[in-house]
Amino acid sequence: MDASTQIELFQDFIESNLKADLLESARKDSKSLGIDFSELSKFNIELAELLLNKPDDVIKAAELSIGKFDIDKKIKIRFHNLPDSCMTHVRNIRSEHIGKFIKTIGVIRQKTDVRPQVVSATFECPSCGNIINVSQDDNSFKQPSKCGCGRKGKFRLIDKKLIDAQKLVIEEAHDFLEGGAQPKRINVYLHDDMTSPWTDKRTNPGTKVGITGTIKELPIITRSGTQSVLFDLALIGNHIEPIEEDFTELTIDSEEMKDILQLSKDPKIYDKLQTSIAPSIFGHERVKEALVLQIFGGVRKQRDDGVITRGDIHILLIGDPGSGKSQLIKRMSFVAPKARFVSGKGVTGAGITATVVKDEFTQGWALEAGALVLANRGYCMIDELDKMNKEDRDAMHEGLEQQSISISKANIQATLRCETTVLSAANPKFGRFDPYMPIPDQIELPVSLINRFDLIFAIKDLPDKERDKIMSGFILKLHQNVKVSKDVPIETSLIRKYVAYAKQRCFPILTDDAITEIQNYYVKMRSSGIEEGSKSVPISARQLEGILRLA
What we know:
This protein is of the alpha/beta class. The protein has helices at 3-27, 37-43, 45-53, 55-65, 197-201, 254-264, 269-276, 285-296, 325-335, 349-352, 371-374, 390-394, 397-401, 447-450, 465-480, 492-505, 512-532, 541-550, and strands at residues 32-36, 76-80, 101-112, 115-124, 131-135, 156-172, 185-191, 208-221, 227-242, 301-302, 308-309, 315-319, 339-343, 354-358, 365-369, 379-383, 404-409, 412-417, 421-426, 455-459.
């Protein structure tokens, strides 16, 4: 299919399907027009397949076809809604994909500022006045090597065409990884309207996005200045959109709706949820109850004056080694739709919040998100919290309470969202709890950090003949049959849907009786704190808000 045929087909397609949208885009001074790939394939399957194999030519033909509609401005064509057959995970991108149009999904890990980029430059020959146009495709600025009159070098730049450009680094989403696989990354380059302020707000680090675009090979320059035989792969973006992936976005069909409504009427629903939340872990009933409350969460409130009260419940488990803390954390990462796991010994403050890094694309600084930001509207599991450095723990304070991370480094000032539920585990001061010392004296964490957790559990591993016999029997049966018992009241998939239903539709309001009960309990807590003297966490208004979230 030649170029003129492609242009005519796109004219017919836009005329019959998108003319009103095109005129509206021109009226609103929009720089792009979106085309649904499924609609294009219904119109002409050959043209749609050609787009996947030769995207540069087809996109150019589509943009040239707009000139036939008497529209002065240049409008870019953005293709979206590609079929699942075009879905290519970052780790599966190979040289065979170069020059092909693909769709991929990932989490934005790093983002540069928007900078102008030269796409073409016009030069004049000082000897004969000849005008030479040079297309700028690579990273280095190119000048004419020779003029028709024989002159070489020192041509005068008289004009250049600039477009906005931005680089993202995306990594594979957690739900696409298998086992202990490390997420792979790829550079994504955005141009023109894809760098608009509106799009810029929706593509902050930590956001999960779906991107369509063309795979290109980029030369790698060695330290000596020569070009390497190896090339880097990059995605030249054509369309980008954020994909929310929290409980509020899970879809529920009619059959699941019936099961959920039936469960909600069960008088023993709370006990069933507590039994089902971690069925392969023995005991810890009170902790499991807390994890049920945590996964449902409280209600995020924004007052008229702009003050926001978080609804996420943070839980800290402090216990003896081998008491099941890490197993509980791992289990919750399966129940939650979005989770990040970090270990205190191998994480820095920048790795858990955010930082700025030197970027080769702009020769400036770029923003890179840490675990709390990447787990936005999900879970962040932090094991070995006590092994983190003091400075790194201090970096978590804003993220835990204000649920935002503020960065003011180099030339970047930004605030990133981290509406993240934190489930953390730590060991006591001496490795195990000493029965002859008060528990608060054995928690080697700063009060300013502990104060931000709504629930703190001290998990002791004490010898008990009867309990040890039951627990060992439970564990041995699990090893005998790796499948979890069929007696589990609610399956994990249904728990997720049940929580999703509650988060989408239920926004409880405190009754007068509940307010009175909470008030009395809070006053009692404050009084007991004064009487006992030694306390790891001073009882303050922050604990009152924690009680409200749990209620």
